[in-house]
Amino acid sequence: MEAYKFDIQRKMQDFSLYTTKKHEAYSSLYRLFLEADNHIGRIMGGKHRQADDYMVYTIDEITKLLDKYEIKMSRQKIILDNWNRRHEDPSVLKNLQNLMNRVYNDQARDYQRRAHNEYFFNKLYLSKEVNRICEDLSSELGFICVNIDALNNGNEVQWVQNKAEENIFKSNSKINNLFKELNLTMQEELKVGYYADE
Length: 198
Known about the structure:
The protein is an all-alpha fold. The chain contains 6 helices and no strands.
């Protein structure tokens, strides 16, 4: 009888630990996916500066900007050596814009990777449905990053830009629906203590 009680207690403790870890995983995953989506959205929403916005920057302000994002000195030198020519030579601003687009795109990819890694490391605690949604969400966020790169890497080919914009529009719609589905599914599972098929 004592062995049976001990076994029940052990199972209850294991279940409690599993439940705690599941709640932590769901909260962390949802937060990281939201951060990735928000960062990507800021790029697409035009909240980062356009090339003309940089025109009014002094050389000190540009230096601080480049330092803030830890741009290599060799890249900084190219921009800074030509900064006083920005009014006569549009390529100076274009080079800076391309560089900053790359920085913002890399940040978006980093956020997407963090969310994907968190998803991958916590798969053990996810229901089949949450697993599917997270896999789709990670894939769509990654796909959007690829298309943002195509838009912002200085590619002037119009059909490439049109296709990238079309892909981003479609992915944004899918991502919005996936977030709604993820939110509802996670809330439902956590609310009722969902543990079927795990």
